[in-house]
Amino acid sequence: MPSSYPRRNRTPGELALAAALVVPIVVVMGGLVFWPLATSVLASFYRIDPMKPGTPFVGLANYGALLADGNVQTAWLNTFAYVAIAVVLETIGGLGAALLLNRVKHGRQWLLAITVLPWCLPPVVNAIVWMWIFNPSYGVLNHVLLWLGVIDARKVWFNDQATALFLISLVHVWRMMPLTAVILLAALQSIPRDLYEAARLDGAGPIKSFRLVTLPLISSGLAIALSQSTVFAFNLFDEAWILSGSSLDTRSVIIQVYLTAFQNLRFSNGMALSILAMLASLLVSLIYVLRVYRETRYD
Amino acid sequence: MRASLSTLPGRIGIVIAVALLVAWSLGPIYWSLVTSLTPPLHLLGTPSLWPQQISFEHYAKLFGATSMSQGNAVQSVWPQFSAALTNSLITSGLATVVTVAIAAFGAYAFVRLEFPGRDLLFVAVVATLAIPAYTVMIPLYRLMISLKLIDTYTGITLIYVSAFLPLALWLMRSVYQAMPISLEEAAWLDGAGRVYTLVYIVLPLSAPGLIASAILTFLNAWGQFMVPLVFSPTLATKPLTVLIPEFVTRNYIDFGLMNAAGILAIIPPVLLVLFLNRYLVSGLMAGATK
């Protein structure tokens, strides 16, 4: 082994120190993440239900039950809607905010602080603040839209499923857009100035230089931002739970996991569903990363 | 591109864009603050951009011994509110201290020390960033029950540490990697040991990274909802994020009270953003782009 580390000889003391520093990480992550994760995967093949005796091996029966369950299907469709709306809005808004922040010279630090603030607040509090804004009788949204003449009568926003899904996504976007903006700002700031200079000398206008210089050079940042938005939108729980509880119209997959496991106590079904949700969010973000990387390669 | 900046329409465009961004980011918070200061009866009327009459009635319900609600004196929520506030502070504080300490020492081993399985372990730990917390929650719940750690500070803190350690470790590793080794070598030549060098030379120089990791961990822990919803069933450890929505389940939704409680709950994050914004943003950028 020492030959694989040619630069310095490993001393027994160094190894002991490394062990002392790393053991807490191994214990915490092993005990509270890796072991439960392995248990989760294994247990999803058994029937674990405090209401029923024994824990027999059932193979893929839990997964099969999930496919047949109408509530689960609705929860998946809702979650896909959340992901689609949130990723699109966060990316467009975040890119806009990042481009703006990159241009502002005076007080950029303050504008950045203001932009980041929604991300720093507890999601639950955000949801409550917006719940009051969306309130059908006294909410400011109805008042403003009435005043502007957009609507002619007060709307009970959450009576309509599409509107409810959109508004919950909007609250989520309000919280998560800053992260996209910061990631893209970091990417923008790493672009050398003289590339724009060169593009300008070649006769490229602002739009052309954005398409030919900015976009390719921030694509890896874009891939990170896209996969972050996707994973967080797949995990949407707080906003939907506060704004409309267990309502099937807005139920996300994670709310379904929570209800299955902690209210109906069907632990193994909940674990199977949570593993499917994890795989789905990993898969979708992998697709972004691969696509964006490939596009940069060929450019 | 530069040229369009200096023209007047370009400038006006930027000013409008800045105004929109500020209104979008601060508008809802401002509205919550206005609501929390509006007398309860005025909340049922036409909203106005500025409260016509400032009232601390909602805050009195949180802090007072008794308060008036719909004409009746009722027990105030101060006992629950203060317990939840304490719980939020203790669990977030403990999680931050433990996470940053483990990450600060552990990341050093991943950068400067050599041991078998080093890279594999690091990749495995950081890869858990991509695993959503709820995937491990059900087995974790059963584990916590068997360890009798449900509804204890130890239990909550341990879960937070396992959830936020990967990000802190990632950040601290990038901080150490950017640090020239020559400083440490000079100390070793002077006969200083590894531990001495780490504690007295490396850690002080890493202060910005340590602060960034601490802020990110604290904010994450402070905003947690689903973990305490499951693992903090009573006021023994229940944080503000779980308590505040419970104000809904009374016979009517007291939006004034909820907004007032919300405003109090966002004070710590707002202070962090106001005073330590630089570290927060550098931490977010380092955590997101490397």
From TrEMBL, chain A:
Keywords: Cell membrane, Membrane, Transmembrane, Transmembrane helix, Transport. Residues 76-288 form the ABC transmembrane type-1 domain. It comes from the Bacteria. It is found in: Cell membrane. GO terms for biological process: transmembrane transport. GO terms for cellular component: plasma membrane. The chain crosses the membrane at residues 15-37, 80-101, 110-133, 164-188, 209-234, 271-290. The keyword Lipid biosynthesis does not apply. InterPro entries: ABC_transporter_permease (IPR051393), MetI-like (IPR000515), MetI-like_sf (IPR035906). PROSITE patterns: ABC_TM1 (PS50928). It is a multi-pass membrane protein. It holds the Pfam family BPD_transp_1. PANTHER family: ABC TRANSPORTER PERMEASE PROTEIN (PTHR30193), INNER MEMBRANE ABC TRANSPORTER PERMEASE PROTEIN YCJO (PTHR30193:SF37). Belongs to the binding-protein-dependent transport system permease family. This is Sugar ABC transporter permease.
Automatic annotation (TrEMBL), chain B:
The keyword Signal does not apply. GO terms for biological process: transmembrane transport. SUPFAM superfamilies: MetI-like (SSF161098). Pfam families: BPD_transp_1. One of its GO terms (cellular component) is plasma membrane. Residues 85-276 form the ABC transmembrane type-1 domain. It is a multi-pass membrane protein. The chain crosses the membrane at residues 12-33, 89-111, 120-141, 153-176, 197-219, 256-276. Gene3D superfamilies: MetI-like. InterPro entries: BP-dep_ABC_trans_perm, MetI-like, MetI-like_sf. The keyword Transmembrane helix applies. It is found in: Cell membrane. Keywords: Cell membrane, Membrane, Transmembrane, Transmembrane helix, Transport. It comes from the Bacteria. PANTHER family: INNER MEMBRANE ABC TRANSPORTER PERMEASE PROTEIN YCJP, MALTOSE TRANSPORT SYSTEM PERMEASE-RELATED. Belongs to the binding-protein-dependent transport system permease family. This is ABC transporter permease.
